[in-house]
Fold these 4 entries.
Entry 1:
Amino acid sequence: MPANKKKSSSGFMQKNSQLLIPLVAILILIIFNLIRDPSFFSIGMVTNNDGYPVLQGNLISIFNGASELVILAMGMTLVTAASGGQDISVGALAAIAGSALVKVLKSTEVITPWTVALGILACCAVAMLFGAFNGTIVSVFRIQPMIATLILFTCGRSIAYWINGGATPTVSSPIITAIGSFIPGCPVPTPILIVIFMGIVLGVLFKTTTLGLYVQTVGINQGAAKLNGINPVAVKLLTFVILGVCCAMAGTIGMSRLSLINHETLLLNVEMDAILAVAIGGNNLGGGKFNLVGSIMGAYAIQALTITLYAMKVPSTDVKAYKAIVIILLVVLGSPVVKEAFRKLKNQISAGRFLKEKGAA
Amino acid sequence: MEDGIVLTMRGICKNFPGVRALQNVDFTLRKGEIHALMGENGAGKSTLIKVLTGVYDKDAGEIHVDGIDGAVTIRSPQDAQDKGISTVYQEITLCPNLSVAENMYIGRQKGMRVQWKEMEKKTGKLLESLSIPARPKQQLGSCSLAVQQMVAIARAVDAECKVLILDEPTSSLDDKEVEMLFSLMRDLRSRGVGIIFVTHFLEQVYAVSDRITVLRNGELVGEYEVQNLPQVELVSKMMGKELEGLSDLDKAASANASSGEAYYEAEGLSSSEAKPFDFRIAKGEVNGFTGLLGSGRSESVRAIFAADRVTGGKVTVDGKVKNITKPIQAMKAGIGYLPEDRKRDGIIADLSVRENIILALQVMKGFFHPLNRKETEEFADEYIKALEIKTANQDTPIKSLSGGNQQKVILARWLLTHPNYLILDEPTRGIDVGTKTEIQRLVLKLAEEGMSVTFISSEIEEMLRTCSRLIVMRDRKIVGELKGKELTQSNVMYTIAGGGKENAC
């Protein structure tokens, strides 16, 4: 139907304007890299140590390396939208979750697929519990999210430390290695598959429940949400629990990459990147309407930037400084002031063209 | 500039993307007159005011202000104030967390030093001379909305203005406060201030204005002297058509219903905001709570819907005892509630018209039963058509609609849940005459179809027109009930005032 077509195209345009900044960021990075090194995006097949063919290349590194960040950014988007604030304890919570997983794995002599499944379930449960703790402080006691999660941010890594008695135990199991790198026979890195899995889970959640509508309603106008029968406390709590699951998955990936849990360094400072991904994705950090795709693209843009800098042989100590410069540019470009200026410029140009045509006629 | 004229605007044009908000509008304000600016929602009143106060740049036209040679360019509200044009907006734009005195002088003192003592003394004098019940050191947020409004006016007056713009100043004031405001306006008029008065209340225009300028669809309809323009003619000029008889509404069906079988009944219902009260409404009845602002009428209906914390009482819905302590329970019992404060409690500003319409129905269906896209589009289409909601499309954010259309969206939201009992708290506030009549007609039509409706309005005429039974409240208590032939304006006033023994306030 033509009418429907028109509707969907206008909807896409609306979404487009929000996705402009992450799109531009990714586009600039792609063009920059292509000019610098045309082979930057080439993907090759190599045989890994176990004798299986796997994909390799900068693009794969970007997608693989961003996995934890992407998962956390999805959860962070929901928390931001519902509560109008950010959870700064996601790194600490991922460390707790990873430690819980290691604790379960270490408690058995032989690591079977079942113990791994049990371990991941346990680590999800622990993370959901801590997420619920954060969520309760935010929604029931109405403490600002950043302050509320400061508690777990401060003590989270100590809790992770206690879980395994202060050690940084290694886990040697082919299953864990497979989660952190490649499943034998599959050329795609497993973390990428986990991201896709999490994306599908959230997608199904949005399709089969009213989560999206409720989260936005609560984030925009909590009072009105209440008068329409929504329980804002429950909605906020739920977003924090979902973020807990995201932390558990990020912790699992992070732990599996190294086959050991280091409670001090696992996903250190990832919360800031996750918040940044939400912001670059065009989401309002004050809550309300959100766009999950934007946050995901934001997360990949951040990782692409990091990989680009490494590829340019920028010393790892300097990477953060260069990252900061690019981020300043992105944030300023996305600011309402600049957007308004662009809009005016566009109007002027189109008005000028109109006058010209008129003159010609 | 001609003598006795403080402000002229000539050929003002203003376009927004897709909308021609003002087209070639002229406006003249004379010294010492109260000049009403009238028009339906979206006629361009607010835009004209915003052009005059420097909020918007005009696309074309000239503005002349007394005492300044040549056409003036007003760059910002601050600039407008410097040129002698002060504004009090419909929404209070002061800082509730500062004191009254600070609010009076914020952004107006010269230099960095603040002379607190003098500021407070001056404020005290001014408040006294205008008999505004507030102390200079009092935190503004602790004053009632009406007093805050008056402080805003006092602030504008004190800024030694030649032109004072009052944009819907009376929409949150009760009758006595309106009268106070009017005497203040007349006082200012006699001092030579030109006042532009924007309002929806026709009676108020005739009570206080000297001249009326009417806008429609962004164009000037004309400028008239009040005595030469009967009220009916004004309305028809605003709407651009002859007004259908407002008084022709037939409420016979509802009147007969009031004695019938009860749909909702409460005994000793109380909430954190409302004292215990008894209440009943029959199937197909339209009744209303009336009383002065703050008399507890809104609090009572909020208790029925459990919008505030319910603290006690026995509720029977359709013959069954129900426990209603949360809005969702009220909704499941077939009750809908359109809140008084549309902006704060009604609209979800950033969400689309469609999402705003389906919200309540969706919540009733439950978390695990989302409506699919096609269903929501059909529902939205149906109600946009039925209520004639003016919106670009379903995806338009509700915040970009005019007030009257936002209200229709909220109304659509509740009609979509097919309630048996609908509570409408001030559904017609800040809405143009045409939409008002539409909503009144709709209420009576719904009642005819068997729906019970409780209606609250600040305008007694409107209540008398729609309700077959009025519950009168004073000081948070029900003090009387009027029905049938008792329903006259003077009876309502008399009951509100407490049989004449006490003062109305």
Entry 2:
Amino acid sequence: MEATPNADHVFAALADATRRDIVLRALAGREGVVELAGHYPMSFAAVQKHVAVLERAGLITKERTGRRKVVRTNVEGLQLARSLLDQYEALWRGRVERMTNIITSTEEAHTCLSLLSARIPKL
Amino acid sequence: MPVTAVGKDPEALTMTLTAEFDASPTRVWELWADPRQLERWWGPPMYPATFTAHDLAPGSRSEYHMTGPTGDQPRGFWDILEADPPRRLAYRHGFAHDDGTPNPDLPGMTAHVTIESIDAGRTRMSIESGFPSAEAMERILAMGMQEGLAQAVGQIDAILAEGVAA
């Protein structure tokens, strides 16, 4: 059963260093839970729990290849976390651009005024 | 490019954006402090903002609404947490009902603005935005998307107008 990535679950799942490492290793999609567990100084059950959290968050899926089940990262889940912040960045980039335009236009207005007052000293 | 750096921390749910301007810190502060100037950059061209209350003093509340192309008027407010002109500003942003009262059902966020002189006539401004949860961020962005879309539409309009002129 493939879970749809949900932002809260994705961020919570990625808050743990072991789980982030599992996500990176599972990009290759070659190892099962048993092989993954071999990389960490913790019990198989503990690794299995981490895998379950990632699976619920939609960050990894278990796929059957032949007689084995391999763990594979769902790149879409990772992108969700990134894209939310990207959208917010775009919003602020727009604001900063408008701020720059305001500063530039008032400077031009000042230059205009000082040119005018230079020509008409008693303005 | 005025934006010099963007740092995103998906775990801490913060985004820090840094920009530089050819202006003094006092001039950059004015962009925030003067409601008439603030209105010119807060909302995108298709969603101009109108601030009906604005005073950058701790404890003060700013109120604004934006007017969309179909006449829709999303409302929001800032609660000023900290103000040290022209160096620091911190506020909590929230959305409001049509009558202007805060809508606690919609998520809030906090912003910390730092303005500092880096050279004669050059100023760095950084804004750290913090979201209470990923769900809150998602909802805030969903509301902002309306603005983003309007902005894109505005750009298309401008391109079409240019094409006609040429």
Entry 3:
Amino acid sequence: MLSRTANGLYWMSRYVERAENIARLIDAGRRMDALPDAGVNGNSEWASIVIASGCSTTFPHELEEATRENVVHHLIFDHENPSSVYSSFAAARENARAMRIAVTTEVWDAINETWATMRSLTPSAADRGQLSGLLDWIKQRGFLIRGAAGASMLRGPGYSFVEIGKYVERADATARLVDVKYNVLLPEDQSVGGGLDYMQWQQILRAANSLRAFRWVYREAVTARTLVDFLILNKVSPRSVAHCYCEIVEGLEDLDPRTTDQLRVLNRARRMRDDILETSVDDVLGQGLHEWLTATIVDTNMFAGELAAAFGFLGPLESQSQSQSAS
Amino acid sequence: MFNEMYDGDSVRPEYKLIQDWIDENGVEALTEKRAEAEALFRRVGITFAVYGEGGDPERLIPFDMVPRVFGASEWDKIERGSIQRANALNAFLTDIYGDREIIKAGILPESMVTGNEAYEAVMEGYTPPGGVFSHIIGVDLVRVDAETSYVLEDNCRTPSGVSYVLQNREVMERMFPDLFRGGIVRPVDHYGDMLAEAMQSVAPPMCDREPTLAILTPGQYNSAYYEHSFLADLMGVELVEGQDLFVEDNRVYMRTTRGPERVDVLYRRIDDAFLDPLTFNPDSMLGVPGIIGAMKAGGVTVVNAPGAGVADDKAIYIHVPEMIKFYLGEDAILPNVPTWQCGKPDECKYVMEHLAELVVKEVHGSGGYGMLIGPASTKAEIEAYAERIKADPAGFIAQPTLALSTSPVLTDAGLAPRHVDLRPYVISGKETKLIPGGLTRVALREGSLVVNSSQGGGVKDTWVLSQ
């Protein structure tokens, strides 16, 4: 497979996943915004969403001025924000279009239709009362596109790159979603482990579409400990970092890496997976949740960089002795 | 003016099939199908990018639902004539980059060849495998009566549009399955196999195995990108960009996730000027440094070969009938349109006196831009154009305003005749052949003679009946 094609499929997949995760982050903000006592310390819920989305540098306002309206606009509709849902769907389609023969008609249709609808939406589509419907639509498009890929693509290298892209993006996004809590200030009369604290964790779980699943697994009310276990360490949870790392390793193994660089990437992925499977909640909380999440986000991104280099994503793959003969 | 469907009040036999369908189902049924067809085209992403004109850059080429039909014997002549022409053009290209017999014989002046913008001196002494420079030639034909089709121009560089031929058929077969029953209409869907087979048959001398084929595209922002990806998919070959390829020891390789993989025959859909920055435009980011050297050393075959454009120039066009005689010893089956060369003083004089009746074109222009259609122009437009001719007479040719044949199109007010042309695609490898059909372009505006998609033209499915 052409390196450029692999690169395109990988990014197509990442952008689809990114759009969905941005929707999940906004959903978390929307839910926390609706809690009693929310907004007592200003709009820290919305500021925390901007921080967690990694968009604080593109956000055109001061973080203290973050509101539901300006955050939703920046994260969903803003053409200037390369990580907005709009830009993500646009980039997913651009990549799919450039790799038109590597994606099936089913995948192309799903992405192309998504883009056509997204492009026609105006910010009024997120007006009060409609926001959650819009967020559902974004998530559903993610389900549809991934489903089309899973049901129609050949199980070859192309599909492996789609899978790897999806799980790299998701590992990063889940870590960011859990980190939202770090930036939301509890009012002074509320304590860690108290009522609001509990409700905030619950909203994070909901944003991950995992509240019911959580109940099935733990059969108890959510706490920081169980949430960290579920969304980070438990590989039965499809959005957990551990699950993502397991899938990344599988995708890489399917690619049957041969070169030294590719084997090094596979080893790194295996190490990341093995480490997280041996990590306990106490290890995470002992290091500090925010610190641990930050380190995980950095690790994931460094892995992504090595992956790109090993498969020739970053510019051209040079052959061993590139001596071009002039004509 | 020749109407391909109606001869007075009676339906010509070729179109009986269509008339019967309309009689049975009504024109309204066609209108309903039109919306369905448009949705299909939009869904598969078959769009034509027109840049610099505002509006949606990914617009659909308007598709007309009424097919254009050729009878078996009508097609037979077009087929033989197009193959003959392609053979002569390839013989000409091999000759002028080789021994130049045609110049020695005094049929063409040397300056017309070597002074031509599309002439590539770097190709001198190179004979491509099988003597084929131009593996895909689009022969643009216009019909003026039941017996006569003129060749309007040849396209020897990288003619586009064949994806529409195949997609139009695909859509028509979905819309009107009953019309295709029993093989009345000859199929066209073997184009991909035909092209792949031709490419395999011109593997370079250094290729010692089943050749690997690829298509080189300038990328997704090119107006014909859809077609490039369509063809790659059809043939099951990689669609590469310049950045995917490199040359080493006179062989061309693709950069893959498994490392370098050799390419033997490359169908390039980028212009000569951008093909190799070491040979042509040094600023080209689209090309492959060293590919011309590799080609000349026999490490890769480039389809169509660089420099083929010299054969489709409008100044050379005039001499194609002589070429056919010279190389093949035959008379042209498909005649040229009578043409005046403004470079010749007496012919120029005639042109200047008859501008209001003629069509005048730039010798090096393409795509229907920069031409004068005398009968459709104002006095001021004609005068302005006359000044341009005076400034550079050799840059212009003139032809009579042809009464292009019409075929019916579906309008809001029912069926109405519109002017059409035809581009069959001749494929040359070990053999020269073409699919039964081609691209019918139609001028959708009433009375218009300009069929170019960039100027209000549309397309139709083209049917060749099996008997």
Entry 4:
Amino acid sequence: MSALRTSRPARFGQYAALLAYLVFLAFPFLWLVSTAFKPAPELASLHPTWIPKDPTFANFRQAFDEQPLLGAAGNSLVAAVAAAVIAVAVATPLAYVTARHRGRLASVATGWVVISQAFPFVLVIIPLFLILKNLHLVNSVFGLVLVYVVWSLPFALWMLTGYVRAVPAELEEAAAVDGAGRLRTLVSVTAPLLVPGIVATALFAFVTAWNEFFFALVLLKTPEKQTLPVVLTHFIGAEGVADLGPLAAAAFLATLPSLVVFGFLQRRITGGMLAGAVKS
Amino acid sequence: MRRRILTLTAALALLVTGCTAGNETPDDGVVRLRFQSLAWQKESVDANRQLVKEWNATHPDVQIEYVQGSWDSVHDQLLTSFEGGEAPDIIHDASDDLADFAYGGDLADLRPLLPERLRADIPARSWETTTFGEGVYGVPFLQEPRVIIANRKILESSGVRLPTPEEPWTWTEFRQVTQDLTRTMGSGRYAVAWPLKEPVSVSLNLGLSAGGQLFHREADGRVTVRFTEADAVVAGTIHDQVVNDRTAPRTTLGSGGSDTLPGFFAGKYAMVPLGFAYRQQIAQQAPKGFEWTVLPAPAGDAGLTQGVSPQTLSIAEDSPYKKEAAAFLDFFLRPENMVRLARGDWMLPTGTTALADPSLHTARDGWATGAAVAERLRPAPAQSVRGYPEWKDKVATPAFQEYYSGAIDGAELRRRLVADGNRVLARYQRK
């Protein structure tokens, strides 16, 4: 145990490094929040302040007045939730098979995961567009969900395979010895242990779909179907000129669902990951 | 690079899928056209929407659906839509983005579609910006010259002569003025801040004022790059201001126009050369009591001439309702409507009738200065030259950036633009 003890200066250093990392991560978000509440003249101040001198909700009002943010958020929510649910539903059994039956299938699946990550958006977008068009799925939220599922499936599979492998096969064998059938073992023994992994994977798929811009831009034609990231670009003009206040206000609101979902599920994820790690 | 990947992928995908565009006949006899607009500022969006509403109210048989696009990603989005046969019928873009689509057969040649009134109202120099080969592929309707936005108090208190469109500064005088101003402003302050995130378009467009051309079409039709004394005037002035005179800060060279505004409002910079439409941001964000004025860009041997890439309206070649779309353009770009659009975007209309509107000649917010230089605006150099985007990204942008920051001298700039540049262009012009 003594090897784990750290000196006071070392511990101080660790906390300082952690704090610096947290500040680094939080800086853009905090700046976004600060900007969202600043009036136009303060946004062009040579010496900007963290706390707005004259805080205002005008940027939020303008953002809602000018763009259909609620409708776009609704579209994003539908697409992201559907993509997350379908991706997890498809990836979970695949991951189980890949993890438990290490053979040619596992190698092929791993190879597919690696190769699929190598293609950039711009390379697949036009063939994908043509395929969806032939299926009459252009300008359809369902078509967009299909794309999101396909796009996040390889990584979801890779993530879940890791979680399944972390569940000792001996537990399933013990259940079998105790008389549990295959299905009972999966439902009562393996599935509860996989919950943190499933939640983490669903979160990944949700956030990926929630933030995705280019597929939504190209595939959805009518304004009523556009998602939030697409609508946010309507605050940006030529040569990168932006209506900064309303853009920050709208972007701040767009980050809230992800934060809320993480906030609710964080304990579930970490709790599940640590469950059984220490004998009580 | 991204554009080439998209183009290549598009070609392959079409080969594989053998996809064709469909011409749908409306069941109810009502023609529905999709109009993708890139207007983004509230006043501009309001003007666009209002015009669409007015059209729809008076044309029940041809209804326009207004779709808001984004400047940020319009090229990739259009490319994908064209390849998939799902492009909007009426397309808002800029003339420097049309070449690929015009040469690729994605846009309709507007010559047989547009009414004589519209053709005659827009000057030939503006039509040149949307002419590719034999065809005209867009209606140029809004344009913005580059002007100098200045802190009125600093300039007036310094005693320097304020330029007007009739008596602009020469480039030599401009350099002298910035030296005088910087001396009077004190340390840490600069007479001018050049936001040169896009150094090539600024250098080429303003370079026309000194007679710079850079791209020369030879007798056999090929285009080559030559860097003459005239081309060196504007680039040399900026370089000297940053590197030798220290009248312009190095720090803004990589900035966009908006990034320089805090320093401008704080009196750190007395002048900022910006696009005409930036006046809206300045009017919105300037602190109370801040006095600003709009000055013409300096003049050279060619006077106040400068290059522009106007905003354009085009019709998709695949649209089954080109005539109806052209009728909408005719309505949308009537002189009184062009004025509304111009005021909404804080830009200048290309139409001569619209440009004569008194509201665009007021001293307030510098409208009169912009209107006075409108007739000196010419097509941006090289926007129709094949290979220009690669020349710009791979050769000219880094070369100008290094030159303006003092990392390379004029001889090296010339060598790169000409020798390296011509190698790039040659690849696009092989017969």
